[in-house]
UniProtKB/TrEMBL annotation:
InterPro entries in the cross-refs: GLTP_sf (IPR036497), Glycolipid_transfer_prot_dom (IPR014830)
Entry similarity comment: Belongs to the GLTP family.
Annotated organism of origin: Ameca splendens
Membrane protein topology class: Peripheral membrane protein
Domain Glycolipid transfer protein as annotated: residue spans: 29-177
Catalytic activity: N-(9Z-octadecenoyl)-sphing-4-enine-1-phosphate(in) = N-(9Z-octadecenoyl)-sphing-4-enine-1-phosphate(out); N-(hexadecanoyl)-sphing-4-enine-1-phosphate(in) = N-(hexadecanoyl)-sphing-4-enine-1-phosphate(out)
Cell compartments where the protein resides: Cell membrane; Cytoplasm, Cytosol; Endosome membrane; Golgi apparatus, trans-Golgi network membrane
Primary location group: membrane
Protein name from the UniProt record: Ceramide-1-phosphate transfer protein
Keywords (A to Z) from UniProt: Cell membrane, Cytoplasm, Endosome, Golgi apparatus, Lipid transport, Lipid-binding, Membrane, Nucleus, Transport
Amino acid sequence: MAGSENQKFCLQEVLDSFQLCLSPNKEVYVEHYVAGWRGLVKFLNSLGSVFGFISKDAVSKIQILVNFLNSENGSQYATVQSMVKFELDNKLVDVDKKGICPESGCRTLLRLHRALRWLELFLECLRTSKEDDKTSVMCREAYNESLAQHHPWVVRKAAGMAFFALPGRPTFFEVMNVGPPEQVVAILGKAVPLISEVYLITEELYLKHNLLDLP
Ligand SMILES: CCCCCCCC/C=C\CCCCCCCC(=O)N[C@@H](COP(=O)(O)O)[C@H](O)/C=C/CCCCCCCCCCCCC
C-alpha cells in the first residue's frame, strides 16, 4: 500500500472500504478503517500542496495504526473493539495526560474518529448542496461543528486558510471520479449513512470506556 496516497482518487473505493469496515456483529475492522482514510488522503493530495500539512498528519496517524496491525500483537488490533480491550487491559493508553504511551492505538484512532464526524457532516452538506454552493463554506461549517473544538487556535487558523483554496463544487464532483453529478449524489447517499454508522459505533465504544478525551 506504500505510496497509494499519490494514486487517483475514486469515491467508490472509499465507499467500499467503509462498507467492509463493519463485521456482522458490528465491530469496526481497523484494516478497512485505515483503507478508507488512505483513499480520502488521495483526494486531499489531489487538491494541492496547501493541504499538505493536513495530509501529513492524517498519513502519520494512519501509519501508526498500520504499524500496530503489522506488529506481533497485530491480531489484537483487528477491530477497534479488540484494540480498546487489549490496550486498556495492558495499560497501554495514557488516560489523563501524555506519559509512556503517547501514540497508543486508542488515542490515534480517536483523532481520525473526530475527523470522521467532520467528514460525515461535510459529505451530507455536499450531497444536498446546489450547483453554486461553496465547498469552502460547507467545509468550514462542518469543521466548526466538529474537529475545530479539539484544535488549538493556530491549527484552526491554518485549516481556515486552507479551506479558501478548495475548488468549486463542479471540480470537486469531477475529482470524485464516479461519473456525472447525479451519480456522485447517489454514491454520497450511500456513503454518508455508512460513515455515520461507523462513527456512532466507535463513539459509543469510546464513551463506554471513557476514552473520548484522551490527551
Ligand atoms: C469523498 C470526497 C470528499 C471529501 C474528501 C475529504 C478528504 C479529507 C482527507 C483527509 C482529512 C484529513 C483528516 C485530518 C485528521 C486530523 C486529525 C487531527 O485532528 N489532528 C490534530 C491533532 O493531532 P495530535 O496533535 O493530537 O496528534 C493535529 O493537530 C492536526 C493537524 C492538521 C490540521 C487538521 C485540520 C483538519 C481540517 C479538516 C479537513 C479538511 C480537508 C478539506 C478537504 C476537503
